[in-house]
Structure formats: structure tokens, C-alpha cells
């Protein structure tokens, strides 16, 4: 069945091949590039970009080669509010956000999808490495590039209007196909890091917006072992850049164990103290084939993008999701997503609030 679809084209190889495949499959495809900054020069460029002027030009050239109409949509204000400000506010609250996950949720599959449906499109096409089978999200066969985790926050309704044409392909296969199709982005490096932090200095970016807020760094006994200029500059599990005055008594490295924004205190300790067995998460989204579980569910959970997968039991309690891990996890940070799987199938997700 031929559909009228909107292809989100970032300027990279994945989205270009996804758009080409959708067109080749007989769909009526329109390409759109999202302008996410009022000042694109301030965003990352080259190998580290995804929304720069350079990327916009690459996307337009790819659309010309494919032979589809192409437009640029200004999403800068929405992106700043839903992604950039959310990023700053989450760090200020002592949490560790994932801006790429938030961009998928709030921009590509909320703002863009809403506009696309209003304009009469049937679906949004993206170059994500994940599979959709009967509206159910599943992992990509390319484990190193699988992006089902950052899509795990999407609702069933949003997934019902999504298309991921690269689902069964590896990254190497996508690049080979791009070259065969004459797409100039075939060898373009993947984007990395956070697109709206031009120099990659997250701590400096936050300091510019939140200002210096000096506070103590303490060990597990409460003894002050150092000082910081802002608790927002740290994340749970961090080892480097702690600026501790003296080494631990046993000489072993120390890690960030917790961040308390009210008292502006960062607590550090040994790696063993990072281990957690229980996770509590809020705002669960049940987007898989089983719906909300009525009792304890044996499944697996992924706690960060490209992170390790843990066997677990998950159970809903009111508005919270309680997850008991089969083996301890380390560096679990509030603000990150816990995405649940049955095999390679996503069944739901929630936002981590605490772990112990």
C-alpha cells in the first residue's frame, strides 16, 4: 500500500538511505530537514553535527538525487524549550538527561509527527536502526548501532505512524547502498556527542546558564574531601574531573555516588558503592505487545544507550515502576530511561528516579 510519508532528513547517510528506500517502495515521499537552532553555526559541525548548515545542504543534495521534494522546517524554538532547556533543568535538579532520547520523543515524534498528520501525511520516516514489526519496536540486527533504546519512550500511537526502513540492515550495508545510489553522504562520519554543545564542554555549557554554585564534595561518612563550582557538573558514576583534595585511604579511585541539588552536595566513594539491585522509575510507557503487566514480569532492562542489558523482574506500583535486577548494575543515574525488553522486543520504558 502506497502511503504519503514525510522523511526526516538530518543530512546523514542513514536518513538519506531511509528516504530513498521509502521512495523506491512506492511511497509518496517528501523530505524535510529540521532547523533546530536559530544560529546553526553555534552547533557542532562535520563529523559531530546533525543539525548544522552543512547538514541542511547535505540533506537537500540527497533529496535531489533521490528525486523527492525537500523543505526545511524551523523547529528551533520548540527544540530549545523541549530539549535544551529540559537538559539544563534536569542537571540543575541533580539528574542526568539523555537529550537524543528527548529529541526523538518531543521533536521527531511529537512536534514533527503532529504537523505531518495535520498536513495529511500518513507517517514519518527516519533513519533509526531499529525494526517495526506490526507496530511493535524491536532491536536492529546491528547490535553496535541499535537505537531501540532511544526510541523506547515512544507511544504505540507514535510507533503506529513511524517507518524505520533500515530496520533489517547493518550500518555497513547502509553505507554500501548509499554509494551505489550516488549519495554523497555515503562516507560521512556519524554524529556524536550533544549537537547543541559546540565545543563538547558540557560542564562549561551548564555553568554559563546556571552560574557558579560552590559546594562540598563529601565521602560516604560525610567528611568534606573537596569542593566544586556546581553540582550540575557531575553525574552518577563519574570518575574523572572530581578535583578531590586527597586520595582515599585505600588508594583506590573514587566515583560520584549521588548528587543532592538542595544542599548542593556531591557524594563520592568506591566503585562497589555504585552497585544497585533495585530501581524505581516513573512515567511508564507501555508500547509493546503485552501492555501494562498485571503482576511481576520477568524481562530484561537496558539503562543507558548502548549499555549492558540486565535480567530483571518489573512490577507496576501505582504510578511507579519497580525493577529488581538479577545482577547488580553500576552508575545508574536518575533522569535516564529504563527500557524493558522481552527478547529483542521493546515492551515499555520509564524514567529512573532512584536506585539502591
UniProtKB/TrEMBL annotation:
EC number: 2.8.1.13
Record-annotated active site: 103 (nucleophile), 195 (cysteine persulfide intermediate)
Pfam families reported in the protein's UniProt record: tRNA_Me_trans, tRNA_Me_trans_C, tRNA_Me_trans_M
Predominant cellular place of this UniProt entry's protein: cytoplasm
Any one GO molecular function term: tRNA-uridine 2-sulfurtransferase activity
Record-level GO cellular component terms: cytoplasm
Classification via HAMAP family: tRNA_thiouridyl_MnmA (MF_00144)
Name of the protein in question: tRNA-specific 2-thiouridylase MnmA
Organism of derivation: Streptosporangium becharense
Record lineage: Bacteria, Bacillati, Actinomycetota, Actinomycetes, Streptosporangiales
Amino acid at each position: 500500500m502506497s502511503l504519503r510519508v514525510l522523511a526526516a532528513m538530518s543530512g546523514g547517510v542513514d536518513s538519506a538511505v531511509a528516504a530513498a528506500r521509502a521512495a523506491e517502495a512506492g511511497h509518496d515521499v517528501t523530505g524535510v530537514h529540521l532547523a533546530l537552532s536559530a544560529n546553526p553555526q553555534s552547533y557542532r559541525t562535520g563529523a559531530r553535527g546533525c543539525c548544522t548548515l552543512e547538514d541542511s545542504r547535505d540533506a537537500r543534495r540527497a533529496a535531489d538525487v533521490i528525486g523527492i521534494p525537500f523543505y526545511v522546517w524551523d523547529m528551533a524554538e520548540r527544540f530549545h524549550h523541549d530539549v535544551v532547556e529540559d537538559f539544563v533543568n534536569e542537571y540543575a535538579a541533580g539528574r542526568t538527561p539523555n537529550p537524543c532520547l528527548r529529541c526523538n520523543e518531543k521533536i521527531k515524534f511529537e512536534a514533527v509527527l503532529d504537523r505531518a498528520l495535520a498536513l495529511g501525511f500518513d507517517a514519518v520516516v527516519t533513519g533509526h536502526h531499529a525494526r517495526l514489526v506490526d507496530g511493535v519496536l524491536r532491536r536492529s540486527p546491528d547490535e553496535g548501532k541499535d537505537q531501540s533504546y532511544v526510541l523506547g519512550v515512544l507511544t504505540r500511537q507514535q510507533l503506529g505512524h513511524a517507518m524505520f526502513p533500515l530496520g533489517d540492515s547493518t550500518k555497513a550495508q547502509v553505507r554500501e547502498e548509499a554509494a551505489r545510489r550516488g549519495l554523497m553522504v555515503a562516507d560521512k562520519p556519524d554524529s556524536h556527542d550533544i549537537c547543541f554543545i559546540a565545543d563538547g564542554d558540557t560542564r562549561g555549557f551548564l555553568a554559563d546558564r546556571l552560574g557558579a554554585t560552590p559546594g562540598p564534595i563529601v565521602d560516604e561518612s560525610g567528611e568534606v574531601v573537596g569542593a566544586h563550582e556546581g553540582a550540575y557538573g557531575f553525574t552518577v558514576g563519574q570518575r574523572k574531573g572530581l578535583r578531590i583534595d586527597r586520595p582515599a585511604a585505600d588508594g583506590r579511585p573514587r566515583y560520584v555516588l549521588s548528587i543532592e541539588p538542595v544542599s548542593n552536595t556531591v557524594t563520592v566513594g568506591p566503585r562497589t558503592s555504585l552497585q544497585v539491585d533495585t530501581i524505581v522509575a516513573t512515567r511508564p510507557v507501555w508500547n509493546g505487545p503485552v501492555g501494562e503487566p498485571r503482576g511481576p514480569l520477568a524481562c530484561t532492562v537496558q539503562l543507558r544507550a548502548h549499555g549492558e542489558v540486565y535480567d530483571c523482574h518489573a512490577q507496576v506500583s501505582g504510578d511507579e515502576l519497580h525493577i529488581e535486577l538479577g545482577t547488580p548494575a553500576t552508575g545508574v543515574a536518575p533522569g535516564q530511561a529504563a527500557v524493558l525488553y522481552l527478547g529483542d522486543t521493546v515492551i515499555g520504558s520509564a524514567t529512573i528516579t532512584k536506585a539502591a
